[in-house]
Design brief:
By secondary structure, the protein is mainly alpha-helical. The protein has two domains: 3-122, no CATH class; 132-227, no CATH class. It is 48% helix and 0% strand. The longest helix is centred in the middle third of the chain and has 18 residues, at 152-169. The two termini are 29 Å apart.
């Protein structure tokens, strides 16, 4: 696909069921906070779906769903709105549009994220933004990379990715670094956070972190960040190689 073709393609890159679920959550928040409705997030989604006659910030007339180029232009317009130290509707527009076009994975529901997370809205669970099928595909790719890794760092990175994915899917009974029993209902946000902190010691070879190679810790960290939607790029590519620039 050429740059021109990509820019003229539809802005929304998310599955329709995910967009619907997120929009419903936004509407529930707006109903509970009428003084803050309509939210920037809600306006952005309606515009992206072609249900608004004009763009939420620039006011540009719309005829049907916007293109990717339209969405990027609206993000630019929203980012130029003066903040003066305040959170404003334009922030919600930026958040929602970045999520819709696939630039960010954080679910754009206003307010404080609930303790149980928003993963269920997008096919995941709790704070995990990835579904089991997607996690399984990354595990398979990492196993392939593990089998023919060109060096120690690649091999241990892939091993760390496989360990996290198997732990999430229930194929591994102990956590990747701390070696603690897997919770009956799967790892929680707290479990992921504790594992990531332990992996940082592995990456830097501090204390008990020396039990594993640095690459293993790097792979664990990157995979956990991807699971939580902190990064959009998976920890390994389709060939099972650590993603360039991820070290």
């Amino acid at each position: 696909m050429t740059i021109a073709e990509r820019e003229s393609s539809p802005a929304v890159r998310r599955p329709s069921e995910h967009v619907t679920a997120v929009h419903e959550a936004i509407r529930e928040w707006e109903a509970a906070h009428p003084d803050s409705a309509p939210s920037g997030e809600g306006q952005a989604i309606l515009w992206a779906l072609g249900e608004c006659a004009q763009a939420p910030i620039s006011g540009r007339p719309s005829e049907g769903p916007p293109t990717l180029a339209d969405a990027c232009a609206e993000i630019d317009a929203a980012e130029r709105v003066p903040r003066e130290g305040r959170i404003i509707p334009a922030d919600g527009v930026v958040s929602a549009l970045r999520w819709l076009i696939g630039a960010k994975d954080g679910v754009p529901v206003p307010g404080k994220r609930p303790a149980e997370g928003w993963g269920h809205l997008v096919g995941g669970r709790g704070v995990v933004m990835r579904g089991e099928a997607e996690i399984g595909r990354i595990a398979e790719a990492a196993r392939a990379g593990l089998a023919d890794a060109p060096d120690e760092w690649d091999r241990t990175w892939c091993s760390g990715t496989v360990a996290v994915c198997e732990w999430m899917l229930g194929a591994r009974s102990k956590s990747p670094v701390r070696d603690t029993p897997r919770p009956m209902n799967g790892p929680t946000g707290v479990n992921l956070g504790m594992e990531e902190r332990a992996a940082e010691d592995v990456s830097r070879q501090l204390g008990r972190g020396r039990r594993h190679s640095p690459g293993y810790g790097d792979g664990v960290i990157r995979t956990i960040q991807w699971l939580r939607g902190q990064i959009t790029v998976p920890p390994v590519n389709e060939q099972g190689r650590p993603v360039p620039g991820a070290r």
